[in-house]
Amino acid sequence: MKQLETRDDVEFLVNKFYEKVGADKTIGFFFNDVAKVNWDLHLPKMYGFWESLLFGSASYKGNPMRAHFPINEMQAMEKHHFEQWLKLWIKTLEEHFEGEMAEAAKTKASNIANLMAHKMKMARR
Q: Where is heme annotated to bind (predicted)?
């Protein structure tokens, strides 16, 4: 196991995570069928997002909440979907990384999952 320390580590983590996501029965369809994600565009955004969140770099430009509202309109994104997303994130982290930054990545992802679930629910009312 290694520490989560660099942009290369973030890219590795994000790639491994989205391999799981794309194949997941609970949430994979959001990416593959609903949003029809272009992975060549999406993955670099996620590298920047997590690098910014974890290391304080300014490599991410965007509004992740705004990007999810149109998907939520097509197919409801519910609490259990975000719980599965978080479960896959934590599993991926624990398979490859340890230490303070890995724990921070779990905490930040948990906060994101809770906030996103709440915002998507409110948007459907």
A: 118
